[in-house]
Write a structure and sequence with these properties.
Layout: H1 3-12, H2 23-31, E1 36-40, H3 42-48, E2 51-53, E3 60-62, E4 69-77, E5 84-91, E6 96-105, E7 108-117, E8 125-128, E9 131-133, H4 135-138, H5 151-154, E10 160-168, E11 178-185, E12 196-200, H6 201-207, H7 216-229, H8 239-242, H9 254-267, E13 270-275, E14 283-285, E15 290-292, E16 298-306, E17 314-322, E18 326-335, E19 338-347, E20 355-358, E21 361-364, H10 380-385, E22 392-399, E23 409-416, E24 429-433, H11 434-440, H12 449-459
Parallel strand pairs: 6-11, 18-23
Antiparallel strand pairs: 1-16, 2-3, 4-5, 4-13, 6-7, 6-9, 7-8, 7-12, 10-11, 14-15, 15-16, 16-17, 18-19, 18-21, 19-20, 19-24, 22-23
Helix pairs in contact: 1-6, 7-11, 7-12
Length: 461
Amino acid sequence: MSTLLARVVTSARTATSSMSPDVDDWLAGRRGQPFESTPIPLDELTRCAGWRFAPGTGNLEHDSGRFFTVEGLHVRTNHGRVEEWWQPVLVQREIAILGILAKEFDGVLHFLLQAKMEPGNAGMVQLSPTVQATPSNYTRVHRGGRTPYVEYFTDPAGDRVLTDVLQSEQGAWFHLKRNRNVVVEVTGDVPPRDDFCWLTLGQIHALLQRRNIVNMDTRSVLGCLLGAAGGPVGGNGSDAASGHRGEPSGRLTMAEVLGWFTRRKSAQQLSARLVPMDSVVGWRREAGRIRREDDGGFSIVGVRARARTREVHGWEQPLLAPHGPTLAGLVVRSIGGRLHALVRAEALPGYLDTVELGPTVRFATDDLDRTPVEHRPEFLDHVLSASGTGSVRYDVVLSEEGGRFLHAETRYLVVEADDGFPLRVPPDFQWVTVEQLLSLVRHSYYLGVELRTLLLCLTGS
């Protein structure tokens, strides 16, 4: 076991710490502050808040030219039952820092998390990384206060970088969005500010069993840390727990997994072209929002936010508002004594390299009633029918990024299949060991954001 893996395992097995407050009381205090997130019509947003619909394109943009824009996307693909569509998409060309500080107390690694208000968060306040900020934020384009602790990630000289990797966000809603997922271990004194606290990985895993506590960015960064550590940290029957060592081979070798992934990327042709919002087919801009003509999917809405704990105490902005929760379901089973996950090579228009690995099923559940049985995703019925049975290993609703999405919730579900579940699966799917996934998450653009969350939750269970 590597030194970093041993330290991460120790942290994962530590359920309490004298360095941490009573998390429930502390979070209740943070959530009890006078925050505001109020929906406002887009027309009001563009009249008073520095946002505008650009002449000639209809793109929703900020007067500063920074932050993000809402633009149109025209997609063509040779894969799936829908070959062409138009949609709005969030365009954020800046690479945000998602950074967590780590420090050892009494021989145990702790992680500095922030109780951060975001206008789109379910519950308003969730546990975010130490720093969750775009360059526009930490260079103070908003003319607000400085971003606490950002200097540890912009210039980590003298500190130990445990992981530092670029990863994507939701490829269905962002266009080519990338974040820097980074953990820096410090040895000097770093006093936590009022909205920050030190937690062990074991404490964080316990919070991941509860709805809408640990935010998407924290989950993504810690998933990357497990990859850097080189193995799972929980007693889940996977390689580290069962004594396997060496190359993380399973039903396929790593070379075979990479070959399959490359073939899927080569086979799935997808063209995603930014176009003016005014030219997007099938969508309508109204005074209050931008919506799809059949009211499916999501809308673009405006919000007014107030939070004295943020660098700017009040602001307005657009958000992407899904019309219902998403299901991210992962089927796992033991093959040859090793835990395998059934992953899908998923082509999404916002991915930098077209295809990343996703869960077995990713599906907007508000579309269930309007989707004929023959058009539903493979394995959806198996995942849904397992709900509430002893085969469910993880089942919690967690929020996606509240700085860009309004109440975007995903039900993360891990289902263990028995030996009767087929080993032969359709071409877009593959059985991959947990350790192979951990090896891949060390690198950019292999695992999508939902699979990074599921990997963290599964390996910590």
